[in-house]
Design brief:
The chain is built from 8 helices and 8 strands, in the order E-H-E-H-H-H-E-H-H-E-E-E-H-E-H-E. It is globular.
Length: 279
């Protein structure tokens, strides 16, 4: 078949957070995404298989703090129970051992702002090795592993994306109404930087900046899709887990806004998996 006529298609799938080994739900998304990419390739499309590494934000900092505890343990310290909010799994222990071998006890003398990026980099690298080994066992190969942190490592692509949308009249400063059923104690009524996603069928406009001045996850996701479009991809397919189903409309809105309607995004949703043991 030649229906694809060598048109370029970007298929992003798996994209599991690099905070631990993949689970069976990720495996299901991996098989689905790879089979879909194979079909597109067979039909004559030029397919790029892509994995988005969420290596920025609170979850990888929590991984680094978990690895630092295991590092102290590897040096002979009794660390007790892993505190809530950190990763208690045994899979973090080898990272602690590797840190001890690399740095000896020297990291103990560093303040957190100095040891955290060192530990985070090693921990993410170790998790990605495990993830890539699992993917290889399924014979799933990605052409591109794209780092979220790279969006702000050099030129700030997130800022550029926001300013481009602002120039189109699609970003403004405003207030959001409190969502129904939201806990009053957790609601912060403040002026925010907002994307006009309601112009594209979303039910509310979406925040791009947190109260501490950092970018929201959605802002980074917008910049990532902007990067894909900038690489010449006008046909985008994302494979999401069902827990991201509420995220579809805003991402599609962003792609339409950023490409002036020239790019299309198709999101496939894999349902969650339930496992049974002994009935």
């Amino acid at each position: 078949a030649d229906m694809g006529k060598a048109e370029r298609v970007n298929v992003e799938f798996v994209s599991a957070n690099p905070t631990g080994p993949m689970h069976v739900g990720h495996g299901r998304g991996a098989v689905f995404g790879d089979a879909l990419a194979n079909l597109l390739q067979f039909a004559g499309y030029e397919v790029t298989r892509e994995y988005y590494i969420n290596d920025a934000g609170a979850q990888v900092d929590a991984l680094a703090r978990s690895a630092f505890l295991r590092y102290r343990e590897a040096l002979g310290e009794a660390i007790g129970e892993i505190p809530p909010g950190l990763y208690p799994g045994d899979y973090v222990k080898p990272v602690g051992v590797a840190l001890a071998a690399e740095y000896g006890p020297s990291l103990l003398n560093y303040p957190e702002e100095r040891w955290l990026p060192l530990v985070r980099e090693m921990a993410i690298a170790a998790m990605l090795v495990q993830i890539k080994q699992d993917l290889a066992a399924l014979d799933v190969k990605h052409d591109v592993f794209f780092s979220e942190r790279s969006l702000t490592a050099g030129a700030d692509e997130i800022k550029t994306t926001i300013e481009e949308l602002r120039a189109k009249g699609l970003v403004y400063e405003g207030r959001l109404e409190k969502p129904k059923g939201h806990d009053d104690n957790e609601w912060e009524d403040r002026e925010q930087t907002l994307f006009k996603s309601t112009d594209f069928g979303d039910d509310v406009d979406r925040a791009l900046m947190k109260s501490d001045g950092s970018y929201t996850y959605f802002a980074a996701d917008m910049a990532y899709h902007h990067n894909k479009i900038g690489r010449g991809f006008l046909h985008l397919i994302n494979v999401f887990g069902a827990d991201h189903a509420g995220y579809l409309t805003r991402v599609k809105a962003a792609v339409t806004a950023l490409s002036d309607g020239k790019a299309d995004l198709d999101i496939k949703v894999c349902q969650l998996v339930k496992l049974f043991r002994a009935g």
